[in-house]
Design a protein that fits this description.
The structure is a single chain. The chain has 298 residues and is an alpha+beta fold. It has eight helices and ten strands. It is elongated and about 70 Å long.
Length: 298
């Protein structure tokens, strides 16, 4: 197991070894903690756990790659490891998001707070690493702004039972009807299903009060309405049987959206250019509905 982490403050090598021994439940003599620029002849290469670290610039101080051999019986998840290490060394630990390098890091404090942090890396020859925003106040980073991070919302998984049912229904069509789907039709069906999924996700978020963030950017809301616009074009490309099936599921998602939104009398959603309401170009009906309360309001 490999753990890639950043620390706000820099523990000394002995303190880091003691902490790793406790967290990974191995003897201290089986921990090798070494500066990446240090003397390789002084390394304990046979150690069960190795920690290569470097001191970094920015409002973080310490970067480390920790590797535990397969023979180490206790190998906690990144979240569990980081929380235990933060408590042991007395400084917040950052660890990367799972499967999405573009999203915000996780940060866990010695007190047990876990939140998200935007980590920026400079393009200098010796890059600096700076936490520029967090979703909850971190005492050890008092000058870092607290704000919602849109990239966290972007990565959230949302169930889409109607879209899934459409996909399964297409897959179960009789061979005679499936043969209507040409290669181009197959591609159009796949893309149309992805757009239907994006459209359904918006309503499912509203249905669940925009959890877990409790917030949703207006920019993303408008982006999804744009996907609903595009559905009309893909709908016309679908083979007859699939088109009728798609329309049935689209109507269900449309009805769900209507149920979960109210009339947007002030045209908050449609008026993305700040133009007078009287000069707004006519848009489809979904552009004139919005959630109540609005999830983008701070």
């Amino acid at each position: 197991m490999t753990y890639n982490i950043f620390l706000v403050d820099s523990p000394d090598a002995n303190a880091m070894a003691q902490a790793l021994a406790a967290v990974l439940q191995v003897p201290v003599k089986e921990i090798d903690v070494a500066d990446v620029d240090g003397d390789p002849d002084e390394r304990h290469w046979e150690a069960l756990v190795s920690c290569e670290y470097s001191h970094v610039h920015g409002n973080l101080s310490y970067s480390a790659e920790i590797y535990a051999q397969d023979s180490v019986a206790h190998q906690p998840s990144e979240a569990q490891f980081s929380a235990a290490l933060a408590e042991r060394v007395g400084t917040p630990v950052l660890y990367p998001p799972t499967g999405n390098s573009e999203s915000a890091h996780w940060i866990v404090t010695p007190e047990g707070l876990t939140t998200r942090a935007r980590l920026d890396e400079s393009e200098d020859e010796e890059p600096s690493y700076t936490v520029t925003a967090v979703e909850a106040f971190v005492r050890q980073l008092p000058d870092v702004p607290v704000r919602h991070l849109p990239e966290v919302v972007r990565e959230q998984k949302v169930i889409t039972p109607l879209t899934d049912a459409f996909t399964e229904a297409v897959a179960s069509l009789p061979e005679t009807e499936r043969s209507e789907i040409s290669p181009d039709g197959t591609a159009a069906t796949r893309v149309a299903a992805s757009y239907l999924g994006a459209w359904e996700k918006l309503s499912r978020r509203a249905e669940n009060s925009w959890e877990p963030s409790g917030w949703f950017p207006l920019e993303f809301y408008r982006e999804t309405l744009g996907y609903r616009d595009d559905i009309e074009g893909y709908l016309r490309q679908l083979p007859g049987t699939v088109q009728a099936l798609y329309r049935d599921y689209l109507n269900k998602v449309d009805d769900l959206y209507r149920e979960l939104t109210v009339e947007d009398r002030d045209h908050v959603v449609a008026n993305d250019k700040g133009a007078p309401v009287t000069h707004l170009a006519q848009k489809p009906w979904w552009w004139y509905r919005r959630p109540e309360p609005m999830p983008w309001a701070e």
